[in-house]
Sequence to fold (166 residues):
Amino acid sequence: MEAINEQIKWELYSAYLYLSMSSWFESIGLKGFANWERIQAMEERDHAMRFYSYIISRGGRVILQSIDAPPSEWESPLAAFEFQLSHEKAVTARIENLMNIALEEKDHASASMLQWFINEQIEEEENASSTVEQLKMVGGETGKGLLYMLDKDMSARVYNPPVAQE
Ligand code: MG
Fold:
Protein backbone atom coordinates (compact mmCIF):
# COMPACT_ATOMS: atom_id res chain seq x y z
CA MET A 1 0.00 0.00 0.00
CA GLU A 2 2.99 2.27 0.67
CA ALA A 3 4.29 1.67 -2.84
CA ILE A 4 0.88 2.62 -4.28
CA ASN A 5 0.94 5.78 -2.14
CA GLU A 6 4.27 6.68 -3.76
CA GLN A 7 2.73 6.23 -7.22
CA ILE A 8 0.26 9.07 -6.52
CA LYS A 9 3.26 11.40 -6.44
CA TRP A 10 4.51 10.11 -9.82
CA GLU A 11 1.13 10.56 -11.48
CA LEU A 12 0.89 14.12 -10.10
CA TYR A 13 4.45 14.77 -11.27
CA SER A 14 3.36 13.57 -14.74
CA ALA A 15 0.46 16.05 -14.61
CA TYR A 16 2.92 18.78 -13.62
CA LEU A 17 5.33 17.81 -16.42
CA TYR A 18 2.66 17.84 -19.13
CA LEU A 19 1.20 21.12 -17.91
CA SER A 20 4.73 22.53 -18.14
CA MET A 21 5.00 21.20 -21.71
CA SER A 22 1.60 22.72 -22.50
CA SER A 23 2.80 26.09 -21.28
CA TRP A 24 5.99 25.74 -23.36
CA PHE A 25 3.98 24.84 -26.51
CA GLU A 26 1.82 27.95 -25.88
CA SER A 27 5.01 30.02 -25.69
CA ILE A 28 6.15 28.87 -29.16
CA GLY A 29 2.71 29.35 -30.73
CA LEU A 30 1.72 25.68 -31.11
CA LYS A 31 -1.75 25.91 -29.59
CA GLY A 32 -2.85 22.45 -30.76
CA PHE A 33 0.08 20.76 -29.01
CA ALA A 34 -0.58 22.94 -25.96
CA ASN A 35 -4.20 21.74 -25.93
CA TRP A 36 -3.09 18.11 -26.25
CA GLU A 37 -0.66 18.37 -23.33
CA ARG A 38 -3.17 20.27 -21.19
CA ILE A 39 -5.59 17.34 -21.60
CA GLN A 40 -2.76 14.88 -20.97
CA ALA A 41 -2.11 16.69 -17.68
CA MET A 42 -5.80 16.31 -16.72
CA GLU A 43 -5.65 12.58 -17.45
CA GLU A 44 -2.57 12.23 -15.23
CA ARG A 45 -4.45 13.96 -12.41
CA ASP A 46 -7.22 11.37 -12.97
CA HIS A 47 -4.61 8.58 -12.71
CA ALA A 48 -3.45 9.99 -9.37
CA MET A 49 -7.06 10.09 -8.16
CA ARG A 50 -7.62 6.50 -9.24
CA PHE A 51 -4.75 5.38 -6.95
CA TYR A 52 -5.98 7.78 -4.26
CA SER A 53 -9.51 6.34 -4.33
CA TYR A 54 -8.16 2.80 -4.34
CA ILE A 55 -6.11 3.36 -1.16
CA ILE A 56 -9.14 4.92 0.56
CA SER A 57 -11.40 2.06 -0.55
CA ARG A 58 -8.98 -0.44 1.03
CA GLY A 59 -9.07 1.43 4.32
CA GLY A 60 -5.59 2.92 3.81
CA ARG A 61 -4.35 6.42 4.54
CA VAL A 62 -3.07 8.63 1.74
CA ILE A 63 0.00 10.69 2.61
CA LEU A 64 0.90 13.19 -0.11
CA GLN A 65 4.56 13.81 -0.84
CA SER A 66 6.38 16.78 -2.33
CA ILE A 67 6.55 17.03 -6.10
CA ASP A 68 9.68 18.20 -7.94
CA ALA A 69 9.52 21.08 -10.40
CA PRO A 70 9.42 19.78 -13.99
CA PRO A 71 11.64 21.07 -16.81
CA SER A 72 10.19 24.18 -18.46
CA GLU A 73 11.94 24.26 -21.85
CA TRP A 74 12.74 21.82 -24.63
CA GLU A 75 14.88 22.27 -27.74
CA SER A 76 12.09 21.37 -30.15
CA PRO A 77 8.65 19.73 -30.26
CA LEU A 78 10.49 16.48 -31.13
CA ALA A 79 12.72 16.81 -28.05
CA ALA A 80 9.61 17.38 -25.89
CA PHE A 81 7.88 14.24 -27.18
CA GLU A 82 11.07 12.17 -26.89
CA PHE A 83 11.20 13.33 -23.25
CA GLN A 84 7.54 12.36 -22.85
CA LEU A 85 8.15 8.90 -24.33
CA SER A 86 11.08 8.20 -22.00
CA HIS A 87 9.08 9.50 -19.03
CA GLU A 88 6.16 7.18 -19.89
CA LYS A 89 8.54 4.21 -20.21
CA ALA A 90 9.79 4.99 -16.70
CA VAL A 91 6.18 5.16 -15.45
CA THR A 92 5.47 1.79 -17.11
CA ALA A 93 8.47 0.28 -15.28
CA ARG A 94 7.14 1.65 -11.95
CA ILE A 95 3.69 0.19 -12.57
CA GLU A 96 5.14 -3.17 -13.58
CA ASN A 97 7.12 -3.12 -10.34
CA LEU A 98 3.90 -2.44 -8.38
CA MET A 99 2.29 -5.37 -10.19
CA ASN A 100 5.25 -7.60 -9.25
CA ILE A 101 4.82 -6.64 -5.58
CA ALA A 102 1.05 -7.32 -5.73
CA LEU A 103 1.64 -10.74 -7.31
CA GLU A 104 4.35 -11.64 -4.77
CA GLU A 105 2.02 -10.67 -1.93
CA LYS A 106 -0.89 -12.55 -3.56
CA ASP A 107 -2.80 -9.24 -3.36
CA HIS A 108 -5.41 -9.95 -6.06
CA ALA A 109 -7.38 -6.74 -5.50
CA SER A 110 -4.32 -4.57 -6.13
CA ALA A 111 -3.32 -6.69 -9.13
CA SER A 112 -6.79 -6.20 -10.62
CA MET A 113 -6.62 -2.43 -10.06
CA LEU A 114 -3.11 -2.30 -11.54
CA GLN A 115 -4.15 -4.21 -14.67
CA TRP A 116 -6.02 -1.07 -15.82
CA PHE A 117 -2.75 0.87 -15.57
CA ILE A 118 -0.77 -1.81 -17.41
CA ASN A 119 -3.21 -1.43 -20.33
CA GLU A 120 -3.24 2.36 -20.07
CA GLN A 121 0.56 2.49 -20.32
CA ILE A 122 0.46 0.67 -23.67
CA GLU A 123 -1.67 3.55 -24.96
CA GLU A 124 0.50 6.24 -23.31
CA GLU A 125 3.67 4.89 -24.90
CA GLU A 126 1.97 4.43 -28.27
CA ASN A 127 0.65 8.03 -28.25
CA ALA A 128 4.06 9.47 -27.44
CA SER A 129 5.97 7.29 -29.88
CA SER A 130 3.60 7.90 -32.80
CA THR A 131 3.93 11.66 -32.25
CA VAL A 132 7.74 11.26 -32.09
CA GLU A 133 7.60 9.47 -35.46
CA GLN A 134 5.43 12.20 -36.99
CA LEU A 135 7.65 14.97 -35.63
CA LYS A 136 10.70 13.24 -37.12
CA MET A 137 9.16 13.86 -40.56
CA VAL A 138 9.03 17.58 -39.82
CA GLY A 139 11.99 19.40 -41.32
CA GLY A 140 12.70 21.84 -44.15
CA GLU A 141 9.98 23.74 -46.00
CA THR A 142 7.57 20.82 -46.49
CA GLY A 143 7.97 20.06 -42.78
CA LYS A 144 6.53 23.42 -41.78
CA GLY A 145 3.25 22.54 -43.48
CA LEU A 146 3.26 19.17 -41.75
CA LEU A 147 3.87 20.77 -38.34
CA TYR A 148 0.94 23.12 -38.99
CA MET A 149 -1.31 20.17 -39.87
CA LEU A 150 -0.11 18.18 -36.85
CA ASP A 151 -0.86 21.15 -34.62
CA LYS A 152 -4.41 21.21 -36.05
CA ASP A 153 -4.77 17.47 -35.29
CA MET A 154 -3.56 17.96 -31.73
CA SER A 155 -6.12 20.74 -31.20
CA ALA A 156 -8.92 18.20 -31.81
CA ARG A 157 -8.23 16.26 -28.60
CA VAL A 158 -11.03 16.62 -26.05
CA TYR A 159 -11.02 15.71 -22.38
CA ASN A 160 -13.09 12.65 -21.45
CA PRO A 161 -13.72 12.57 -17.69
CA PRO A 162 -13.25 9.10 -16.18
CA VAL A 163 -16.45 7.08 -15.82
CA ALA A 164 -17.41 6.23 -12.26
CA GLN A 165 -15.56 3.15 -11.06
CA GLU A 166 -17.75 0.33 -9.96
MG1 MG B 1 -0.27 8.21 -15.84
Remarks:
- Residues 11, 14, 44, 47, 91 surround magnesium ion (CB under 6 Å).
